[in-house]
Protein: D-serine deaminase, pyridoxal phosphate-dependent
Organism: Aquiflexum balticum DSM 16537
Amino acid sequence: MSYLSQITSPTLLLDEKICRNNLKKMALKAKFQGKKLVPHFKTSQSHEVGEWAKEYGITEITVSSIKMAEYFCGHGWENIHIAFPFNPLETKKLSELAKNQSLSVQLINEAVTEKLAKDLDYPVGFFIEIDAGYGRTGVEVSDFGLIEAILRKAKSTDKLRFKGFYLHPGHTYYTADKAKIYEESLAALNMLKNKYSTEYPKLVTRLGDTPGCSVMEDFGDVDEIGPGNFVFYDMMQVNLGSCKREDVAVALAVPVVDIKKERKEILIHGGGVHLAKDVLMEPDGSKNFGEVVILNENGWSIPFGRSYLKSISQEHGIIKASDELLAQVKVGDLLGILPVHSCMTADCMGGYLSLNGEKIDHAESI
């Protein structure tokens, strides 16, 4: 039975072949440069995708919350890193999970370090998150006083184990000059490693963002890379030049409920509760909430004439349709939407349907 016959409402499709290809390419890039790939699983949040990743030599993962870490505990990962400034209110939960699973967290201040040093019952690793220009979070790269204060607090216990420095150059999402950002980020991590490796000879440096990891060919002396969105990609990454439309591994299947040919508009059941509300801007200033693809028995194809989702509300979406699309679609058909931000779309939908018609898990489905 075709997977299409199972769909009656918005459904997130996952193309295993494309996803595996994305995993394979990034794993080979890391291996070629002698780096360890520790992907961020906030994008897929899936045990099934995790099993695919293991086939390409991936043994550790990154997550964005302790809830997500708990979801992946007990599934054979050598370590699960929580890449978010640790929330001290979750110390008890962290300690419980650390009893049976190797975990690491990110620290950016003395207060949380002291809390963990005092209250942890089981060992946990930690990275010091570094800010080298993004400005979202982290210790300023030149703030050696704070870095050393965190390290001193951690030394007061055998429950905190320093792993190294973590840097997320997220400003690659906002500029075309990714090479300059990476040059600055790599220089920052290299400086810190040289400064502290005598006292901590096993420390590692990790950086990762999908735009940079997708386009850069030289990661310098960094030890590990940790991109996340690359596993699915999306239209934002296409727009940034990280990938092609053919590399996007997920598409939201949406029912067509009305067509206004005179306005070149198609009304679909699919809105903000399915796609989130991330948006791209078209050259004419109009909004783009996702790009239309044509669903078929083998997945989807990219039409010659572009059609895109020009507006969304909670459940509704309006497509600005090409003449080609208007000529072939009718009420009751299904169309596919390549999301602007696949991480958020997957989180909204809480699960996937494979092209074989099988359900694929997501952390939000439990």
